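Morning run. Coffee first, then this:
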Amino acid sequence: MPQVGIDAALVALAYFLAFRLRFDNGVPDDYADLQAATIAWVVGASVVVFTLFRLYEKWWRYTGHRDYVNIVEAVTVGTLFVPAFVALTQPVIVRSGRGDVALTVPTGVLALFFLLTLTLVGGARFVSRAVYERPPGGFRARSDARRVLIVGAGDGGRLVLREILRNRDLGLDPVGFVDDDPTKHRVRIDGVRVLGRTDELPRILDEAEPDEVTIAIPSAPGTLRARVVSACRTRGIPVRTLPTVFELLQTGGANVVRQARPVEVEDILGREPVRMELDRVGRYLDGEVVMVTGAGGSIGSELCRQISRVAPRKLILLDHAEDNLFRIQRELEDDRHVHPSTLAVVLADCKEGERMREVFAEHRPTVVFHAAAYKHVGLMELNPVEAVRNNAVATRLLARVAGEHEVKRFVLISTDKAVAPATVMGASKALAEYAVEAAQDRWPRTRFAIVRFGNVLGSSGSVVPIFRRQIARGGPVTVTDLRMTRYFMTIPEAVQLVIRSGSLGQGGEIFVLEMGDPVSIRHLAETMIELSGLRPGEDIAIEEVGRRPGEKLHEDLFNPYERTQPTPAEKITRAERDRLDPAVVEAMFDEVGLLVLEGDAAALAAKVSELTGMRASAALADPPDAPGPQAGRAVL
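And here it is:
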């Protein structure tokens, strides 16, 4: 291996020079003999030590800070080998007035050998990396290279710059950085100057005249991305962004410049995400058999991706949709390298009791995340029987089976539409919450929990895919009411918080994810049109079509009769309320179940509205002692 041969030559050179530098008038004969007798052993031992310290597990051009620490440790051990070897073997004996004496290596030689070896071995790797990242002739962009301005001079920005400098084929020419850190202003990073702050971006764009802008801050908040996009959009400059931290973790950090993608609405509207160590907060799943229902859906599939990273003993993917289930299975096995032996792919319907009992008996799950649900409000209004059957009755069934099999934890994914429900879909999810609370009283050995949150950007029930399709068709973008607001969160963050919530509950709690400030649907539509390079109201019209029956202007995250309580976890609160008597819940589901069997849609819609309305009326007639959240929009 060339690297081993070069290191051997460098160690030999360091050992030779150490003797020459120690003795100014030439190396005495006795010490010359000592050098000749030991040099082969010193070189061989050093190479063995370097191998044990893993100095040859990567090419020198990829040497990093940790590798230099290994080099120091390896050279130290290699240097200590020299006096130890001489003391044991005594290769050179000299005669003196006191008899024969074994010659030892002078301390000065050892010190010089350590410093020279460290310099030569470490320096070779440093030069190799420097040449790889910036060729000897310097960086020369191609004549047709696009001028790029990099927003962010931190680790992400430097990573982008190094990729550009080492790879001319990217066709990019860095013209400068933009960064808000005052200590970086006007400094040069690898020869590229930091031109100013993001609030000076309009001036910088006019002066630098880049062809494109790359946001190189994976954890940048949506406000910063929006500011950059706004300044660039007025000048017709395209903006790309590095993948988010979640995407980088999922795909790896290689070729980050090629991974840069256009800015999407999720990047702008998504507030600064909470950062938590998934390996730590998801440790309770380590070694468990985890089942995810609705595994092929938007929330379920992200649950599978993140849970697979915390090493469960087995991950059970359960879904009724064949195509979605096949897609997430292939992604986990092919793209994320999850071993097939740790996956169980189950095609089944949560509404079928016997089938669910078969699945639980076969796979023995210890943790269940119930994400299977119908989400489209308008579609559920047209199909109330299926909405209640799938969202409420099936949840009650699954909670019962989980309790019977003594599952450790059961987590229901709920929604803000279950708060003061005004639609069949919301009412069906409210009933599902009642069913899980009742299950906790009946099966206390299982820790049941409910996680409630608002709209998720990009999910199948979100308005974002609808707007995208309308913009692609040339408009118009239809908004039911221009005054409407909704809470939004990105899918990865929501799922991360769901996993964290699963570790918090002692049984029967309702956890509510803090969704930040509500977003105007009109602003959402205008932002998406602008990100498509078009002008709202001119290129793409925005039409108000009127609210559908039961649709609210503003969603709530808490019922008026619920009390907000803090939790140890950031961005997660708890909704405290008096639980319904399990017998009352049973009576509710007996009535609902009968109407589902009869298929009486009108009577069922009226009944679930009556039942959920009765809960609110009863609670408000006997309000809790502690003040709850305001009855209007929830403020978190």
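Residues 245-254, 623-636 have pLDDT under 50 and may be disordered. Good start to the day.
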